[in-house]
Specification:
This protein is of the alpha+beta class. It is 52% helix and 24% strand. The strands form three sheets. Strands 2-1-5-4-3 form a five-stranded antiparallel beta sheet, sandwiched between helices. A five-stranded antiparallel beta sheet has the order 7-6-10-9-8, sandwiched between helices. Helix 11 runs antiparallel to helix 12. The protein is rod-shaped and about 155 Å long.
């Protein structure tokens, strides 16, 4: 009897422990169900909502009372409903332990809400399905961002500018054909890879990272630099970085547009050179005029001295002759500068002209 009583006590205590454990488990589940960050629902075998939490009500805009009068087919987009029911049936039959799907809800205000659904079944002790458990994550903003990126890629695919989208981890998420061609890489070699791995750690650390960080902080960046393209050679480019804003105002990445301005840069440098050569030519003509006047005086004076030969010593006569020869050589060289007025001239689109000094001084 004593052993029997002891066994009864142990069974009673065991049952009490089991009851406490079940109560604690139920309490934990209820806390997760009610307070968790995901929308959650218990769904009957007829697909009607049995219980829903506040987060799910927030996602679809219905009250708890309204939702428990509906089933998930009532709020699922018609284009997504067939696949969802097919998977739900397989889970209830036991063909699948669970499933995940991205689909659209139609919220109370008729707005489209994208969700990621994870569904499973809770069974009784005999293994029979009692109800389904649905965990719902609102992914609408992610889907909107993906759609924006798709439109961005479509828009820039035909552009000759080098265009990419880089996320907050400095990883390529979108890239156009021109960018791939300039780097001699395929899309697969760029998308999903870091900027440092594609362009090199050194240029990333010394040049790009600081500008990307400033842009990710909300600042628009614009800068120009010479760049050695693997496919195009040395090019002068204009890089523009624009922050990509999400609906909530956060910056989720950087839109990069790199334009090849090499032809414009070379034209500007040629124009500066034309102006410089024009100034040199004007100075040369002015100097020629002044020097020519001085040489005329020297030649006249040397001729006058030569005519007074009887008054000069032999050394002085020879000195006068050397002065005359030197003056004539200088005059001949100055005559070449006169040719600047008829030398070949290159005229640029801006109207600036550059004289060919080499041709002018060899006539």
């Amino acid at each position: 009897m004593r052993d029997l009583d002891k066994s009864k006590d142990e069974l009673k205590k065991g049952a009490e422990r089991m009851a406490r454990m079940m109560a604690e488990r139920e309490q934990r589940f209820r806390r997760v169900f009610d307070e968790g960050p995901l929308g959650m629902a218990l769904v009957g075998k007829d697909y009607r909502f049995l219980q829903v939490n506040n987060k799910l009500c927030e996602i679809v805009g219905y009250t708890e009372t309204e939702l428990t009068q509906l089933g998930f087919p009532d709020i699922t987009h018609p284009e997504d409903l067939g696949k969802d029911i097919e998977l739900a049936e397989q889970v209830f039959r036991g063909d699948l332990p669970s499933y995940q799907i991205e689909k659209r809800y139609i919220a109370k205000g008729q707005d489209i809400v994208w969700i990621h659904l994870t569904a499973s079944v809770i069974r009784d002790e005999q293994g029979e399905p009692m109800y389904g458990l649905a965990m719902i994550e609102d992914i609408t903003e992610r889907k909107r961002s993906e759609e924006v990126l798709r439109k961005y890629e479509s828009m820039v695919s035909a552009s000759r500018d080098l265009m990419v989208f880089v996320d907050t981890t400095y990883t390529y998420r979108a890239v156009n054909a021109a960018y791939c061609e300039a780097h001699r890489k395929t899309r697969e070699e760029i998308l999903g890879h870091s900027v440092a791995s594609v362009l090199g750690q050194e240029i990333f650390e010394t040049t790009l990272k600081a500008n990307l960080d400033r842009c990710l902080a909300g600042e628009q960046m614009n800068f120009e630099f010479w760049w050695d393209s693997p496919a195009l050679g040395r090019r002068y480019v204009d890089a523009r970085y624009d922050p990509f804003y999400e609906a909530d105002g956060s910056v989720s990445g950087v839109l990069v547009d790199v334009r090849d301005n090499t032809d414009q840069k070379q034209a500007e440098e040629a124009l500066r050179e034309a102006r410089r050569m024009k100034a040199i030519g004007q100075i040369a003509l002015t100097v020629r005029h002044h020097v020519n006047n001085a040489l005329t005086t020297i030649l006249l004076s040397s001729q006058r001295l030569a005519s007074e030969g009887s008054l000069l010593t032999q050394d002085h006569r020879e000195m006068v002759q050397e002065i005359s020869k030197a003056a004539r050589r200088i005059a001949q060289d100055l005559e070449k500068i006169r040719n600047l007025k008829t030398a070949p001239v290159t005229t640029y689109a801006t109207g600036e002209e550059m004289v060919d000094l080499a041709a002018a001084t060899t006539k």
